[in-house]
User: Fold this.
Amino acid sequence: MAPVDWPLAIKPLIKKYCRVKHPLNYRNPFELLVMVVLSAQDSDAHINTIAPSLFQRIPNMAALAKVSQSKLTQFLKGVRNAVKKSKWLIEIGKSIKLDKNIPSTLDQLVLLPGIGRKSANVFLRETKRKPEGVIVDLHVVRVAPRIGIASGTDPKKIEQEIMKKLPQKYWDAGMAMSFLGRQICRPKNPKCPECMMKRVCFYYKNQVPKK
Ligand code: SF4
Assistant:
């Protein structure tokens, strides 16, 4: 089997999704940062439902720095790991203090509690910064090995493999694969016949009966 020209193969997918906003309904970088912390091991849809009342009470970094942990935990009722996340968010508020001080590089972002590479990469993408890595969420962990651009289940290794196969200008491929995973490449019964990646997809090639 001829090796896949990944930049060429992935380009249409990136083009399809490059202007699509992340499913978290944030209105500014402060809300985005808080919501990426809250969405870890929870769903974007759920965090979107609690966000309006949370941001009515905590509208900015200065308010976050001042709120008590018991109060914030109360506002996060129903969010998975609410106690731990409220502690992280208050630490973030106290260290950043004002919205204008929110970091703008991956190295600085991952120093914040509750922010890993995935969240930092999402933050950089949504704030229109140059990608410094590739977003690898649970959808990408499923989709990338199916397509064949990466292997295994370790998000860090998957990210490194994708970064090696694609030039930096194509590192939005992570978010594109995440959207593909949400809409088409579902865990059960992926909709392969309508998928734009089927011509190169390793999983699909192995499903189609050989002639
Ligand atoms: S062809 Fe099928 S398995 Fe491959 S990426 Fe598309 S939906 Fe997923």
Q: What stands out?
A: The pocket of iron/sulfur cluster is lined by residues 143, 146-147, 184-185, 190-192, 195, 197-198, 201, 203-204 (CB under 6 Å). Residues 82-96 form the longest helix (15 residues). The chain has a mean pLDDT of 96. The domain at 6-19+134-207 is CATH 1.10.1670.10 (Endonuclease Iii, domain 2).
